[in-house]
Amino acid sequence: MPQGTRPAGKPDRRDKPSRPKQAPRPEILHIENLAAGGAGVARLADRTAVFVPGTAPGERVEAEVDRNTRPARGRLLRVIEASPDRVEPACLYADACGGCDFMHLSQHAQETAHAEIVRSAVAHATGETPPAIQVHSAPEPLGYRTRARLYVRGERGRVRIGYRAPGSHALVATPACIVLAPSIAGALDEIPTVLAGSSGEGDVQIARGAGGRLVVDATWRGEIAPAAWAALDRRVAEGAWAGARVRMEGAKTPAVFGDPRPVLEGADGAPLVVAAGSFAQSSDRGATLLARRAAELARAEVDAPREGADEKANGHVLELFAGSGTLSILLARGAASFVAVESDEGAARSARENLAARDLPGKVVVADADAYPIPPRVEVVVLDPPRAGAEGATAAIAASRVHRVVYVACDPATLARDLGVLVRAGFELTHLETVELFPQTSHVETVARLVRRRGAR
Ligand SMILES: C[S@@+](CC[C@H](N)C(=O)[O-])C[C@H]1O[C@@H](n2cnc3c(N)ncnc32)[C@H](O)[C@@H]1O
């Protein structure tokens, strides 16, 4: 058929008149629940769902509703009837910054909302009622972040630091941030001082490195002033910072000062080295809790672990998406054999270093975990994929003879999708736990344990 023609009578989407834009207008809404992503959900008279950030279930609010977006969005104008779960945000910058989108909720309400988001996603995707969710509270609800990504801008010689405003590139300058651990919070003062005179913008990751001192990993678009390079060098040479790495836009290799690798406190209490620029959990104590739960659930006996039981009885363990080994250092300890798979070479190198520092046996393979063939002797797979989930790995597990799976996830939607595949392949979801790794935010970490049903392979 020649381009541009179509069979007579068949409607062409281009013929459809586009719906006229409606000006946003105020509406009184009743918030029913909190959606993944943190916004409260209300329904308009015609049942259209509206997502209103900054609200709580049960509240009556006035919001400016924009029906032109999909889904419709509401901007909170005022709370008419507040939920008893509403609290005064502990941070002055909470509204403008948006990074802590659950700070208006009590800790209990945050935990309940997280668990409900996970429960409903998993129930929907698996078609089954999930087991009761065990909630692990945050070890520290504030001051917990031992690693953070900040946004820095230099204009007319003045350098400001903070976070990106929600859904935009605008800088929300935050001279203080109460979710940062005291050990890294000083970076909010120090980085603008060091970079003074620079122009442009950068994403800057901060963490603790060797000796508990600050490490800074920056990507910069623009110019860094000569005095700023000298100040960076001096900070590291004088030992105030353990290291820094700066990647200028377009440069092939970064400038490196000292040792820019973050050094976290591992789940066994010993230092855990992370490759600069590689994934690291946001809080040491949260990561410890997570690693302990994952290792506990990976054991053959979970509900009735015997005192002094043979750890090697945990069998042959495969860990996928292993990063620098946050979980590996506990998983390898209890395994007859241990293989970890990670695609980031730097992270894999750190994972090897972390295992070797503990005299733990195990192999770390640099490979795509979503295409990794599961060796036939593997009995347990532990996976902790990025937000996109693990479609390939899930399909491989479903087709394997693996007995049990521990799935660690930071995205309830992709977790639920993958659990649905495993349940349909004959696995039973025996444990579902939320770990409060990101208190004050709508983000939640989940750990799920699945066991292959008898006779399902
Ligand atoms: C959520 S992190 C978890 C890392 C580790 N469990 C931890 O707690 O530090 C996911 C990891 O998967 C790695 N990754 C992403 N895609 C991958 C792939 N296709 N194959 C293997 N690893 C991958 C990332 O580099 C990252 O280290």
Automatic annotation (TrEMBL):
Domain TRAM: 20-78
Keywords (A to Z) from UniProt: 4Fe-4S, Iron, Iron-sulfur, Metal-binding, Methyltransferase, S-adenosyl-L-methionine, Transferase
CDD domains, sorted: AdoMet_MTases (cd02440)
Domain of life: Bacteria
GO BP annotations, alphabetical order: rRNA base methylation
Record-linked Pfam families: Cons_hypoth95, TRAM
Region ranges (Disordered): 1-26
GO molecular function: rRNA (uridine-C5-)-methyltransferase activity
Segments of skewed composition (Basic and acidic residues): 9-18
Active site per database record: 410, 410 (nucleophile)
Binding site for S-adenosyl-L-methionine: 281, 321, 342, 384
UniProt family annotation: Belongs to the class I-like SAM-binding methyltransferase superfamily. RNA M5U methyltransferase family.
PANTHER family tied to this protein: 23S RRNA (URACIL(1939)-C(5))-METHYLTRANSFERASE RLMD, RNA M5U METHYLTRANSFERASE
Protein name per its UniProtKB record: Class I SAM-dependent RNA methyltransferase
UniProt organism field: Polyangium jinanense
Lineage, opening ranks: Bacteria, Pseudomonadati, Myxococcota, Polyangia, Polyangiales
